[in-house]
Amino acid sequence: MSNLPKKVFYFTLIISILLFLIGFSILFSGCSSNENKVIAEVENEKITQADLNKELNQQYGREVLQTLIDQKLIQLEAKKKNITVNENELNQEIEKISLNLGGLDKFKEQIKSKGIDFEEYKNKLKLDILLRKLIISSLSEDEIKVFYENNKESLPLVEVSFIMAPDKNLADSIIKNLKNGGDFSKLAETYSQDPISRDSKGYVGFLARYDISRNSPTFKALEDQIFKNPKKGEIIGPIEIKYNNQSLYYIVKYHNVLKTYEEVKPKIQELLAQQKVQEYIQRLRKNANIKITYEKNDK
């Protein structure tokens, strides 16, 4: 679909923003009882937790407060509409995000490197899913169908993984290994040199027709083969691509193939939900009774 991103899941940028906000929320909420603790010394001059808290409050206080207000609005609206997120839905979302970031272990490492507890992250992600479900619940069938009709030329959607080998012999060897029951993700992690999927064990995510050629016209031949006759669970290749006077050989695995309106509908809902986040939050704010007594301490 012309407006559909390569990966329908939430992206690293969104996750990074979420981690940033979580981190400052934790700093503001968890350090007030330890304000006299010395956290750094410069030439024997002490910097305390209170100094840090004051600076954070001055620079980011209003932003974090607005985040907390938005979180409360989401929770109240979900309660009003009886919309919940269960543990299975939460784990599925974490699995989706992890696929795009190279697996659960790497994802947890990224969370930890931000100084954020994984359970705390999960609580914030739960709010993110709640918001998505709220927006989806507000979408009309006509709105979804209009988007579908306007983007039908980009169907089907295919969920794929890549292995890119730099020579034909290696590609043929990988195909032989796969036919003998080899694990695609492990082979991709070991051999693939595709820059898009190198860090995600070959996993690319969902692609719409023209996603590849729009961004990399040189790879139109790869796109043509991927969308020629896609079948769920099938592995095709090696597909030879000429790039910078050399031949590259792609092996493609189909995880999913979505063609009909009913098959594509959930992905359209996800995309529209991503597009409407700010609009929906603004509507919640406008219709809510919000009283702010916060004053930034500049002293």
Question: Can you tell me the CATH class of the largest domain?
Answer: Mainly Alpha
The largest pleated sheet is described as: 4 strands, antiparallel
Low-confidence stretches: 4-17
Tell me the strand order in the biggest sheet. Answer: 4-3-6-5
Topology of helices and strands:
Blueprint: H1 12-30, E1 38-42, E2 45-48, H2 49-80, H3 87-100, H4 104-113, H5 118-138, H6 141-150, E3 157-165, H7 168-179, H8 184-191, E4 203-207, H9 211-215, H10 220-226, E5 235-243, E6 246-258, H11 261-275, H12 277-287
Antiparallel strand pairs: 1-2, 3-4, 3-6, 5-6
Helix pairs in contact: 1-2, 2-5, 3-4, 5-11, 6-11
Summed up:
By secondary structure, the protein is α+β, with helices and mostly antiparallel strands. The protein folds into two domains: 12-147 and 262-287, Triger factor/SurA peptide-binding fold (Orthogonal Bundle); 156-258, Chitinase A, domain 3 (Roll), CATH 3.10.50.40.
